[in-house]
Amino acid sequence: MEADNKDNNPELTGSDQLTEAVVDGVQDTSLTELRRDQICEAALELFLKKGFASTTIRDICAQSGVNQASIYDYIANKNDILRRLLNKLWFSSDVVNLADRIVQHQDAPFEEQVTEYLRDSWTKKRKGTLLAYRAVPHLQEDDRRAMRIRDETVIHSLASQLRRMAKLADNDPRAEILANLIIFMAAFAPMRDWLHKNVDDEIILSTVAAGINAMVVHLAEQPNEPAEL
User: Whole-model pTM?
Assistant: First the structure.
């Protein structure tokens, strides 16, 4: 088995992203960024095609054109490449989370906000979703914890907005349940698109957004948490 060089195990810092290793083997910043982009683009293609575990550093070098003798001047190891890819694709700042959209556009209809959120999530984050889903078994423990903390933060933030919109009590757990469901659909619905490949994307998008809106309306019509059976 090919061993990774510089097996750094980054500490969780509480930032919104995974902690990338500090690698400064080359002083030319522009060259470093260029080579890292080459390495990460090649690795993404290989990770999605062959899987993380089956892809070697040698494979990445061959695909990227970066010499194996110098690759560690730009990245620490295969896990570091994975972190950089997840930061770029999964934690993408190009996709504003739904809670922030609601705050930023309070006058816009909720269903419209959901539609745009899903559109961005299903297009801009598609590869990041596939990568995260397939790579979870290979993540370092600190990375798993960082992703879990991020997910919990996003869920609680959205739940807070849903409570406000539906006028729910602060301790009503249905807001978290619905927030978790919305985020799950935003992330993983495209992975089941083979079930409706002949249906127009806009129809799928509007149908799911309408369903989410209907769930929030339902909560608003039943503001009190149902009694236990």
Answer: 0.81
